Amino acid sequence: MREKGGDIMSAETVRIIGNVSFRLTLDPGVWIFDDRRVHMENVFTDRAEAQVISEAEKMARAWNRQRTGKKPQSNQNIVHIDRKDLTEHSLGIPLEPFLQNASPSEDAKSLIVRQEDGHEERISLTEAMSAILAFSEKGKPLKETGPVHFYYGDGSNHHNPIQNVTELIVE
């Protein structure tokens, strides 16, 4: 546990605070179950190709549903996890959905990425919307340099991500 501004928070979480309607506490430990996760090994090299594959997969699923008829609606959450994701791959997740859920104010213009040692990087909120938060390396949580690594959406810091990220502050 670490103490920050009177709040006690887990060393494994990241907060989104600042000029937002809703403060969020993110727990990267649960992102392994999130369908939005991406493989960091190729996220910057074939983003366009991944988008095309994703669209093709959506169309294939829709086609299969049409061919086989409608299934009864289920209230169960079905999570599909490839064992290799858990044990071999480095994974990340887009930051955009979390920023959107925090609801930045209309006058918010930037995001400060604060590291555990207090160092801060400021980027535009527009740039932040395309960022990726890495949460595992080769199947292991980022214990030493985490809880997350911050990658710019354009991949410009692909070989040198911002590490030990503890807070994302919307200004």
Automatic annotation (TrEMBL):
Source domain of life: Bacteria
Name the UniProt record assigns to this protein: Peptidyl-prolyl cis-trans isomerase
